[in-house]
Amino acid sequence: MTRSFNTAGPCQSDIHYMLSPLVRLPQLQQFIAQRNYFVIHAPRQIGKTTAIMSLAQQLTTSGQYAAVVLSAEVGAPFGQDITIAEEAILGAWENTIAIRLPIDLQPPPWISTRPGQRILAALQAWAQSCPKPLVIFIDEIDSLQDTALVSILRQLRDGYSNRPHAFPQSIGLIGMRDVRDYKVASGGSDRLQTASPFNIKVESLTMRNFYVTEVAELYQQHTDDTGQIFTPEAVQLVFDLTQGQPWLVNAIARQLTEVIAPEPKITITPAMVEAAKEIIIRRQDTHLDSLAERLREERVQVIMEPILAGQGLPLTSNEDRQYLVDLGLLRRDPAGGLVIANPIYREVLPRVLAQGPQDSLPLISPSWLTTAGELDTDQLLHAFMDFWLQHGEALLKSAAYPEIAPHLVLMAFLHRVINGGGTLEREYAIGRDRMDLCLRYGSVTLGIELKVWRTRQADPLTKGLEQLAGYLDRLKQSSGWLIIFDKRTNALPLEERLETSLAQTANGQQVVVIRL
Fold first, then answer.
1. Does residue 476 register a pLDDT over 70?
2. Phi and psi angles of residue 376, each rounded to the nearest 5 degrees, phi first
3. Is the Cβ–Cβ distance between 362 and 414 less than 8 Å?
4. pLDDT beyond 50 at 54
5. pTM tops 0.85, yes or no
6. Rounded to 5 degrees, what are φ and ψ at 6?
7. What average pLDDT does range 137-154 have in this prediction?
8. How far apart are CA 319 and CA 328, in angstroms?
9. Domains and CATH numbers, the chain
10. Sign of torsion over alpha carbons 264, 265, 269, 273
11. How far apart (Å, rounded) are the C-alpha atoms in residues 35 and 302?
């Protein structure tokens, strides 16, 4: 059977292309040998479950341990009822163990004891009866909340000193977040704030993304199986777009090999990679949807909003900033500062935020297209000005992030424009105080810079022209738009300030200045 690129759940080596998952967690076997307890946290769809399932199977096959991956997710609905949570979890564990471990390594019947001690008692009895030291990986641990979460963490801590003969030799907690970010409802906070219920952990590990050489190695498996070739330039572009995020690497390859170029004789090129990227962004599959859902969280918004606006970060805790890194939304650039994790996320996140204004748009006739179907930028400007005068300010209220509401409404309008077959690319970063947009439609490329005129600030026209000149140079364009949103408290009414004018950059590029 031909293998495929996996985008749903743990990889299985007989049907999926996959790299050795343990290469990205080299410390685990040493931790287990040293009888350590630990945490593995990383964003979804990065390979955590694949890695620990592979390691558990390897450890058990070696004959040294009885190792298994168990899930705590079934206890999630019962956060305040430890009795029901424990029953649900132990029932699921019993079923999983019966499938994944040989009979001689399976536990005795679970002991019925007092609520809040059943996990402790079950693991203790199992460790005492098992002929091999137990290694337990508890997946989806951070799906638990409140009483159930704290109780189970404390039960694991209580049994820790009795390892390995009367408690598992090693336990790993697996989830998206580190211990301190597990959700509880106590003390006026919705986070644990401390690792104390599981302060026996030796370390919190995270899984890295693929290196570019690993992307090439993964894709080479498909070439070896089918003969289909990825050009080196295509592989490099995949890495540049994804920064090695495993789900994205697989998702692009799946689109390439099953949709865009399903015939093995077709060589994969960078242009095909770009097409696959656009499909993924438009589809917003489960992985991207779950990531975008995080944008609603207050601690995420307080950091993401200024990044999207190009402003500096407000006073935030290191824990909150690390939380966004742990979720996979941001990464720390070696050159300095927090940046969006990869170019695909950089496209997806503002697109998701612009969905509210986009859904609120009135019917707009595509007057910006010529009879030949080409984009006419003069007509586009007229259509945009009419749209903003009639609907712009009203639509600002539909934007989820008030600080960048004008940006989101503008993007919603431009998305309506490109629905006919164009693309919209975005550039933004901390401290740049701007957002750059590149609208491509057929043979037309339009570079747009967005600036905000805030209270007690100078008119951003001069700085905007200087910044736009550099952007247009990178796009190799001789003209563009500079849009200035007037958000001063004493700004004139829209009807009086709405205007366009012509300007020129120091590099001689022609610029339409649009004041809103």
1. yes
2. -105, 105
3. no
4. yes
5. no
6. -90, 130
7. 90
8. 14
9. 21-205 (3.40.50.300), 212-283 (1.10.8), 363-515 (no CATH)
10. negative
11. 40
